[in-house]
Amino acid sequence: MKAFYAEEQKRHDPKAFLSSGAAQPNPEKPERVERLLSGAKYAGCTIERPRNHGLGPVAAVHTPEYLDFIEHIYARWQRIEGASAEVIPNIHPIARNGSYPASAVGQAGYHMADTACPISGETWQSALWSVWSAVDAAEAVMSGVPAAYALCRPPGHHAFADVAGGFCFINNSAVAAQALRKQAARVAILDVDLHHGNGTQGIFYARPDVLTVSLHADPVRFYPFFWGHADERGEGPGLGYNFNLPLPRKSADAAFLEALEVAFQRIRAFSPDALVVALGLDAFEGDPFGGLSVTTPGFSRIGEAIAKLDLPTVIVQEGGYLCDELGDNLTAFLTGFGGKMR
Ligand SMILES: [Zn+2]
Prior knowledge:
With 342 residues, the chain is α/β, with parallel strands linked by helices. 35% of the residues lie in helices and 14% in strands. It has helices at 31-42, 56-59, 64-78, 104-111, 123-142, 172-180, 198-204, 253-270, 296-307, 326-339, and strands at residues 2-4, 16-19, 22-25, 46-48, 147-150, 187-191, 210-217, 242-247, 274-279, 313-317. It has an 8-stranded parallel sheet with strand order 4-1-5-10-9-6-7-8, with helices on both faces. Helix 9 (296-307) links the parallel strand 9 (274-279) and strand 10 (313-317). Helix 1 (31-42) packs parallel to helix 10, helix 5 (123-142) runs parallel beside helix 6 (172-180) and helix 8 runs parallel beside helix 9 (296-307). It is globular, with a radius of gyration of 18 Å. Residues 193-195, 280, 282, 319 line the site of zinc ion (ZN). The site of zinc ion (ZN) has 6 residues, from loops.
């Protein structure tokens, strides 16, 4: 399988985030890339450097003021006396019905949902190359290969059209889906990350041409708390085109695969022309987030099951954090998925 990744994606190196109010080391570390790269190579992927696609495909999903913010906020932040080394917000509008702020601090609160997505001088370039990997994978699939893998890091599925959050800045899966729309009238996004894909849901919430389906740990007591519940079904013309399958904490392979079958019924009924898999590996039983209990062989079965949908498929890396099995879990998914194609 073709895989896409650029070295620049490793430069973003966030230092901190707050967990239950306590400062912790940020788990979205550059070292994730090494584990994922070796996992992809072990699965037989050839790694290609993506092209520079400019801002066109990104601006099809994100607002101009947001992209300008992500690109320039670090330099502006450095001019504030006594400011932190990384851009981290400390004030948010409780409702987004006020004025757009002019100041760096105000804009950080406006465009950043939480403290898990610190912005440094390397963030913009890493996020751009990450999304370009997703765009190249989408173009490979549009050129006729059955599937391609984008090693996207930083991840993307918590990023809304104009809000970063949860380690995410540019929504790679959403940009891939939008790129596929050039050829595919209907695109489905299947998000199997441990966490609900709230940004992806938000981007397509009012649209009937992109079906968003997410399996994740029940957000009743888990990030992202405000989204991911079963009654969120879309709005306006998009009503009925968003489908959430929250799972009880610590659900293991059998429960995950059972929920996946329910997701497949929705996807088949939608009859998409192409599929984006938002591939988080943090549903793993040994992941530091500890939300679900999927095993390494479980990821192989998940890959195998998704391949049976028999759709042109872009696989976009989302979460999955440092543990000994991170690379093995990617190998398991990709070989499970690819086994069907051989
Ligand atoms: Zn996640």
